[in-house]
Amino acid sequence: MQKTIYIINGPNLNLLGKREPEIYGAQTLSDVEKRCLETAQSHEIDIVFAQSNHEGQIVELIHEAREKAQGIIINPAAYTHTSIAILDALHAFDGPVIELHISQVHKRETFRHHSYVSQRADAVMAGFGTHGYQLAIEHMGMLLNK
Ligand code: DQA
User: Fold this and answer.
1) pLDDT per residue over 47-74, tens digit each?
2) Global pTM?
3) Does residue 136 have its Cβ closer than 6 Å to ligand 1?
4) Looking at residue 1, what is its pLDDT?
């Protein structure tokens, strides 16, 4: 059976390409989605690519992934640093979780250095730019097929 990964993006990532491009780059979220689809196809993985500005909606997406996916790649954006609800939802998910940040958060303001989600994540990526999504899919493919 072909494996499914949920790729979940948090608040303000809908503005990718327009928002602080010196930090987050020039690619839009739909550019990122397109590349993710290509990478996933070449690894014979199905993806569900989602973005929400709402914490509860992200929790719902994680619940949905419990039923439909074997792995989660999540960029929780600002909720990384604040959300126990997202951490708890991820604790209720059984498969591998990769936490991804486009920017190198540890080089930035100290409030970005703490992540609730890291307490659940099996791998944490930061500073690979939007290319990180492709790397995360490749790694997830490896985790799911071993
Ligand atoms: C981010 C880093 C977060 O600190 C920030 O709030 C974001 C994006 C990143 O991808 O680098 O919105 O998760």
Assistant:
1) 999 999 999 999 999 999 999 999 999 9
2) 0.97
3) no
4) 78
The list of the chain residues with pLDDT below 70 reads 146
The reply to whether ligand 1 has any atom less than 6 angstroms from the CB of 35 is: no
Mutate-to-test residue for ligand 1 from 9, 18, 102, 130, highest number of ligand atoms within 8 A of CB: 102
Ligand 1 centroid to Cα of residue 103, in Å, is: 7
Q: What is the DSSP string of the chain?
A: --EEEEEEE-TTGGGTTTS-HHHH-S--HHHHHHHHHHHHHHTTEEEEEEE-S-HHHHHHHHHHHHHH-SEEEEE-GGGGGT-HHHHHHHHT--S-EEEEESS-GGGS-GGGS--SGGGT-SEEEESSTTHHHHHHHHHHHHHHH-
Quick one: pLDDT at residue 87?
A: 98
What CATH superfamily is the domain 3-144? Dehydroquinase, class II (3.40.50.9100)
Domain ranges of the chain: 3-144
Quote the ligand 1 centre to 130 CA distance (angstroms): 12
